[in-house]
Amino acid sequence: MTSLPQTAGRSPVRRLAGTLHRRPRLRLSLLLTAPLLWLAVLYLGSLAVLFVSAFWTTNSFTSEVVKVWSADNFHQLLTTPVYRQVILRSVGVALAVTLLCAVIAFPVAFYTARIAKPERRPLLVVAILTPLWASYLVKVYAWRLILSQDGLADWALKPLGLSGPGYGLTAAVIALTYLWLPYMILPIHTALEQLPANLLDASADLGARAGRTFRSVVLPMVLPSVAAGSVFTFSLSLGDYITVQIVGGKTQLIGNVVYSNIELNLPMAAALGTVPVVVIVVYLLAMRRTGALSSL
Amino acid sequence: MEAKAIRLQGLRKAFGDTTAVAGVDLEIADGEFFSMLGPSGSGKTTVLRMIAGFESPTEGRIELAGQEVTGLAPFERDVHTVFQDYALFPHMTVEENVAYGLKVRKVPKAERLVRARKALADVRLEGFGRRRPAQLSGGQRQRVALARALVGRPGVLLLDEPLGALDLKLREQMQVELKAIQREVGITFVFVTHDQEEALTMSDRIAVFNQGRIEQVGTPAEIYERPATAFVAGFVGTSNLLDGQSAQQIVGAPGTYSIRPEKIRVLQESARATESADAGAAEATDDAEPEFSTATGTVAEVVYLGDATRFLVDLDAGGRLTALQQNLETSSEDVAALRGTRVRLRWHRRHAVRVPDPR
Fold first, then answer.
1. For B33-86, how does the pLDDT look when each residue is reduced to its tens digit (9 = 90+)?
2. Contact check, Cβ <8 Å, A206/B100
């Protein structure tokens, strides 16, 4: 860089700022080197190690990893009925949680975004977010208490002649729905809040009642945000293993099986661990078609 | 047709403590192009929204074609609206937008397609049916909104500042087209605008709104030539009022008078005035014509407008008047030199319109 005559008297900081201003590439590399290193080495790197180790095997006596290439683990995953069941059950739980979240979140978001007074809306959003500030474990143990025998759920349902679901698959779905609900409410809230009021007026003006306006105008315009929320609820549910351990009784999901295999059969755990990654990639590709990813 | 298309009686609307509409009575005839003109916050849009059914009045009564509709929902009224920012459904194609009202009313698919295409052709948008609103220009969107509102053949079409977002050229073109479409379909148009020129060019009648009330209802010429209040005189056209002592001295009677700028002739008082033959002639005949008023003053500002020149004249009797002169073949180049010169203003007495004193 040949410095201009008038830069001679300037402070070094100003000279550096000037140099950076004239060199956009240098500026960009200073900005991105650290985060890119983090992403490439730690994030993608560990994923790569996971994937590679899924093709290794273990010594069945010592449980030590043997670095011999084989696709046995994946073959086992696809042929052993127990593994297939666990995978299907996990995907089913994730879908059920997502569906429940969407059904519960829509009316809540409709209230917070369109019915509540505008000055109260930020407070309501904060209220929706507060559960996220509490510890995950505390919340799940709270559900364990609620769903325990003669717990809150049993007590509340007794007058109706019913009892709570107890620990098991249903309990896991309920607890997961509770945990991830805010991630569904928020995008729907944002979409409903941004929905121009005069589109609703226009629909009514052209003769549509509330139900028709909801089906033909509100729902199609908010659907991408529901899909965006579902990306969170689906992937968070698919990867969870603690909730199901605490309230799921004997229920096994992918996460539990990975966890229990880590000590005994690390390559098998790695192979199982790639399943949710693949499922979520497929799910994201499906959601991309709805336009969900541009409303994240 | 016996019943009026729209009849408003004692219409009031309050939002909390603020009164948006403070008592409006109005009758709009069938097939009329009716404008509601006023500054923002004057209540004109609120009245429109009450006719459409988006707002319910705090007090008063709304009739459409002789039927009371005050408590009815928008979808129960034979009225369609063209919104200020068009309010097209972004997830539908142009054709689906236009056909939406027909679909809602359960018109068979084949028929609504034919009618939607016809409506698009009427606004010169044939071939645009498959596009999305986002792919259209402002003027095209505007016409889609118009087609969507007209395709159901409503008894009344409400237009809420529909030309506000367009640039000047397009706006002028759309003014002509809107008027032509209205004449063709014969539907009652209620047009809300804050642009006095727009209201004057298109309307059969105009209501001038101010602070939630109607100041005057009349034909464009009545509103412009004989403003009923000082507000109307000022809002429609240039505010040009003579009052107090200067009115007494110039008009010869007390009160507030409105004079339209183009009615005022500017005659030069200096020796240079004799260069202009007709100016000299006018001055000579001045005293002989008692139906004319004159006032002397000093030119405070000269604004060259291209087709005309605007003079701001400080009167010797006090106050200031604006005069507008067409730039005919003479003097348009050196009008700037007239700043600071002495002039005599002259107008026909019937052009000084007495208005009630401003409150």
1. 999 999 998 999 999 999 999 999 999 999 999 899 999 999 999 999 999 889
2. yes
Q: What CATH number matches the domain at B6-230, 3.20.10.10, 3.40.50.720, 3.20.20.80, 3.40.50.300? A: 3.40.50.300
Q: How many CB pairs under 8 A join A and B?
A: 62
d(CA B349, CA B14): 43
Residues (pLDDT < 50) of chain B are 1, 271-286
Distance to chain A for B91, nearest Cα, Å: 7
The pLDDT tens digits of the residues spanning A72-97 come to 888 888 888 989 999 999 999 999 99
**Facing residues of B159 across strands?**
B82, B191
Long-range contacts of A149-158, Cβ-Cβ distance < 8 Å, separation of 24 or more: none
Using the beta-carbon criterion (under 8 Å), do B74 and A198 form an inter-chain contact? no
* pTM of the predicted protein model: 0.76
Domain boundaries, chain B: 6-230, 241-355
Whether A225 has its CB under 8 Å from any CB of chain B: the answer is no
Domains and CATH numbers, chain A: 5-53 (no CATH), 73-295 (1.10.3720.10)
CA–CA distance from A192 to each of A90, A187, A206, B91 (Å)? 31, 9, 21, 15
> What pLDDT does A43 receive?
87
Of B52, B53, B89, the CB nearest to A217: B89
User: Does this complex have an ipTM over 0.85?
Assistant: no
CB spacing of A205 vs B104 below 8 angstroms:
no
Name the closest residue on chain B to residue A199, using Cα atoms: B87
CATH class of domain segment(s) B241-355: mainly beta
Token pair recorded at residue B48: 């429109």
**Shortest CA distance from A291: residue in chain B:** B91
